[in-house]
Amino acid sequence: MRDELLVSADSHVVEDPQLWKKRLPASLKDRAPVFPELQVGGAFQARPGGHDPRARLSEMLQDGVSGEVLYPSFCMDLYGLTEVALQEACFRVYNDWIIEYCSVAPDRLFGIGNLSCFNIDNAVKELERCKQSGLRGAMIWQIPPKDLPFHGGHYEKLWGAAQELDMPISLHILTGEPFPYPRPVVPRIAPIYFPYVVNEKLLYAANAISSFIAGGILERHPRLKIVLVENEISWLPFVVSQFDKYASRGNLQSEMKLTPGEYFERQIYATFFNDPPSKYMAGNWGTKNFMWSNDYPHPNSTWPNSRDVVERDLGHLAGEAKDRLLSQNVLELYKLPQIAIH
């Protein structure tokens, strides 16, 4: 186990809370989002490597992780902005910053850009810039506004550009219309909290993949790759099998020429990091679609015990199936360089 390559498909940075105040154009500084000062051990940041890439490399070594695909923390809240020019500028600022962060170790740290999708022409331009700058993919909202559904025509240029540029499109939890900025605090009252942290997140993810599959997006763009991020995976076989069941009944108005399960297998990926029931399906379903992650440096991360959690959930696997889940799928999806075990 200690000799197996671990590459996290979903880790996080923690941005300078003053980043946007410092870097936005002068015309937007008065509306710059500002976040609480960094406190190691506090919300979002369990370790200093969240904002310090050199510290991160040391902490990755402690966790036995050799490479990480990086998503934001504070910037995720900014998908709740509704002022288009401000959101676009905030995402450009973040994208510049994550490029700088990853430059410290470009063979081990791999950034994902952020795209504002109100103006799709601008989103395509930013996607092209992300590609040219060495970022490995781009994130959009997981829950689009009701008047801009994924299966509508609004995004077609973006899907086409992502396919041609070979840039996977990520959908991360807690991004989109139900999560305004500033984000309200959810009371930790069980009947309110459980639906928010479990039920609603899974519903949003299921709705998103149904739009891509049933809306014909994956039929029209057969090389487009979609990544569900941080929704875990053990719920997916049931949902996808239900899509297959209802599609098979016929008389369905649809562009689909394959079954939903075939589109999923061909084009959709999902990350997992602490999903105990996944051990019952691992190696039997989704072996080429699922990617292990550690969610570092957030407090609920598996750091520094990631290898113990991997052993708990995947210890019964061996050979190619295990390698695919722990490293090979993410290496292939993002065209990452060969990474040495650290």
Describe the structure.
There is one protein chain. With 342 residues, the chain is of the alpha/beta class. It has a single domain (7-333), classed as TIM Barrel (Alpha-Beta Barrel), CATH 3.20.20.140. It contains 12 helices and 8 strands. It has helices at residues 19-23, 53-63, 74-77, 84-102, 120-132, 156-165, 190-214, 217-220, 236-247, 260-267, 306-314, 319-333, and strands spanning 7-12, 67-71, 109-114, 137-140, 169-172, 226-229, 268-272, 290-292. α5 (120-132) packs parallel to α6 (156-165).
CATH class descriptor: Alpha Beta
At the fourth level of CATH, the homologous superfamily is Metal-dependent hydrolases
Through-space gap between termini: 13 Å
Tell me the β content.
5-15%
Structural class: alpha/beta
Count the strands? 8
Radius of gyration: 19 Å
> Secondary-structure element order, as H and E?
EHHEHHEHEHEHHEHHEEHH
CATH architectural type = Alpha-Beta Barrel
- Give the count of helical stretches: 12
Helical fraction equals 25-40%
Query: Whole-number average pLDDT?
Result: 95
How many separate domains? 1
